[in-house]
Write a structure and sequence with these properties.
By secondary structure, the chain is α+β, with helices and mostly antiparallel strands. Helices cover about 65% and strands about 10% of the residues. The chain contains 14 helices and eight strands. It has a four-stranded antiparallel sheet, with no helix packed on it. A two-stranded parallel ribbon has the order 1-6. The radius of gyration is 47 Å and the shape is elongated.
């Protein structure tokens, strides 16, 4: 037994010695290898290499996408609501015609102003006699020679009229009233142009929203069709539901095509209201119409802050004599009234003075002067004067009747405008509630159809109701804004900044003694500002 244990110890010792010698030989081989082979970076594993290449490619594609997006942004022209209105005002033919009419009426006033003052005329002439001629009375009589003669004259004439159309001032007053009437037409054309531009802008946004809703409808219809096919393949739904889904997809695509056509028409109407040709104005650029956040802010401000404090009767009392139409009628009445006075039968006088200097004449003095007064009284002209007066008087009476009619019609128009605004606000609130209900009903219908407790026809109906409610909510929201802008046009307001009102807008043009507080008393501008 002792001999066996000794053998095991000897064997273990030999094994340990063998392992030690092997380790020493491996270390020496490694040292010699390091001395003989140049040191290099260890290559990455293949998976790591592929990952690095992928990351590099993704980064390159991302940088290219960013560059493409920047280039696309540079090539895209963002058309804002303010710029749409500015272009419409700049290119409006109606506004330009109204401005030219007002300019013509102003120069007519300048003409009559000149007729009421002094006039100075200067005239001159130079005359030369015929060629030199000789004349003899007979033989032996000396010849008489006639020399050619040159005469010249210079005259100055000053006159001052005394007549109804001239110095008495009726023509001047009539021309000024006519100019005021034409100038009021500029204000009417301006407010109408702003309203038309905003109407076209809102119409385009509504058409674009209809396209977005139609695209959403196609996606939902295709999703429902996929679910119907899955249930049909699983044997849990009849073939009829698949057919219903296919019909719904076809109808949704048809609605999308119709919505896109409507967007093109709305876009053409927008450019027409702006008065620009997109190919000429937006050269080599895609045009994107901005949906301004100010639209939603304005709608909230109109509903929550502005409308509850408006009163139609107070608006009528405050604005009836401030509208462009009222000023146009008032100017027309003044023009016709002064023309009646100007064309009456009355004497017309003229004070005049003159000075004449001439040379070359042996029959007259070299210098002469004159002054005097001349008068004309049209005793009888076969009734032409009376006919002209009565025609202008009848036109003036007609304008007065129109003014009285406008006062009444303006009050009724304001009541209609305020009522339309109220109806638009109520419609928007109803549409908002309807959208919330339709959205919840559609969500429950989708869940119910997946669980098998709702038939496919009810799901299709819920989808149609949801899409219709979504479309109606946007239209009603924009209708609040357009109704308010129609109210501004009725008031004749030409400040385009007020057509998108916010809490920072200067609303003094429509709140001065018009907006009332909770007690029913009018709030003035100063009180509102303080």
């Amino acid at each position: 037994m002792k001999k066996a244990s000794e053998n095991r110890r000897i064997t273990g010792f030999l094994a340990a010695a063998t392992v030690g010698i092997a380790l020493l030989m491996g270390a020496g081989a490694a040292a010699s290898a390091e001395d003989s082979i140049p040191v290099k970076d260890a290559p990455l594993p293949r998976a790591a290499v592929e990952a690095e290449d992928t990351v590099t490619l993704v980064r390159a594609e991302a940088s290219e996408d960013v560059a493409d997006e920047k280039e696309a942004e540079e090539m895209t022209y963002l058309l804002t609501a303010q710029e749409i209105v500015a272009l419409a005002l700049e290119n409006s033919y109606d506004l330009r015609v109204a401005e030219k009419d007002a300019e013509s009426a102003f120069f007519e006033y300048i003409k009559y102003t000149g007729m009421a003052g002094f006039s100075v005329d200067i005239a001159g002439s130079i005359k030369r006699a015929g060629p030199v001629r000789g004349f003899s009375a007979g033989p032996g009589v000396p010849e008489v020679t006639f020399q050619k003669e040159t005469t010249s004259s210079l005259a100055a004439q000053i006159s001052y009229p005394l007549s109804p159309m001239g110095n008495l001032g009726y023509g001047k007053r009539a021309a000024w009233s006519g100019y005021q009437a034409k100038l009021a037409g500029v204000g009417s054309a301006r407010s109408r142009t702003i309203t038309d531009a905003f109407g076209a802008y809102v119409g385009y946004l509504a058409a674009r929203n209809a396209v977005a809703v139609a695209e959403e409808g196609v996606e939902l219809a295709e999703e429902q069709l996929r679910n119907a096919r899955l249930k049909f393949d699983n044997g849990t739904a009849p073939r009829f539901e698949v057919m219903q889904g296919e019909v719904a997809v076809s109808q949704a695509k048809e609605e999308l095509i119709s919505a896109r056509n409507g967007q093109k028409l709305a876009e053409s109407a927008l450019y027409l209201a702006m008065g620009v040709v997109p190919e000429d104005y937006f050269t080599d650029s895609d045009v994107e119409v901005e949906y301004a956040e100010a639209l939603d802010r304005s709608v909230r401000f109109i509903i929550e802050e502005l409308f509850p404090r408006l009163d139609a009767d107070e608006l009528a009392d405050a604005f009836v004599e401030r509208t462009p139409t009222y000023h146009a009628l008032e100017g027309t009445i003044g023009m016709l009234h002064n023309q009646v006075l100007a064309y009456r039968r009355s004497p017309q006088f003229s004070l005049d003075a003159g000075y004449l200097q001439q040379t070359g004449s042996t029959m007259q003095a070299r210098r002469s002067w004159s002054f005097g007064i001349s008068g004309v009284f049209n005793l009888w002209d076969s009734g032409k004067t009376e006919g002209t007066q009565k025609s202008f008087a009848a036109q003036a009476d007609s304008a007065r009747v129109q003014l009285a009619k406008y006062r009444h019609a303006f009050r009724m128009s304001l009541q209609d405008a305020v009522s339309n605004l109220e109806a638009a606000i109520q419609g928007y609130r109803t549409a908002t509630n309807t959208l919330e209900s339709a959205e919840e009903a559609f969500r429950m219908a989708r869940l119910g159809y997946r669980e098998g407790v709702i038939v496919h026809a009810d799901l299709v109906s819920a989808r149609a109701a949801y899409l219709g409610a979504e479309l109606n909510e946007f239209d009603r929201r924009m209708e609040v804004l357009t109704a308010f802008q129609s109210l501004l046009e009725t008031l004749g307001i030409g400040d385009e900044e007020l057509y998108l009102p916010t809490t920072t807008s200067d609303l003094s043009a429509i709140v001065h003694e018009v907006i009332t507080d909770e007690s029913g008393e009018a709030v003035s501008d100063d009180a509102g500002n303080n």
